[in-house]
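Form 7-S
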Amino acid sequence: MTLKVYLSGEIHTDWRDRITEGAKGLDVAFDAPVTDHGASDDCGVAILGDEADKYWHDHKGAMVNAIRTRKGLGDADVVVVRFGTQYKQWNAAFDAGQASALGKSLIILQPPEHDHALKEVDAAALAVAREPEQVVQILRYVLEGTLPG
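Output:
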């Protein structure tokens, strides 16, 4: 069984690479949003035309990015949402809510200092992990039924 996993959330650390590397050999297909920050921010105006007002610049980008996000979330069996420490990831919280509403298996990846702020998000999740390697262990358990050595 191929498990389709959508990796949502912060884009400034190597957590996605750690998961994809750790999952080598597992029957997993990964998808994610565009993680090039500049491309993600500017896709709307680059494709649909410039905007003088930053609000509409961002709005166009959000709409274009939503096409990819909706497809990725809809196709996923498991959605992993990473909340990092450097920035507030409001979009990640939105993705977690959408995944929950779609009935997706949701894994939250966050540091302990976010526990209180994300308590409602965490309550919708099937697992709250602290490290990307724990996500890999969950995927391995789901696919192979094996526990970490």
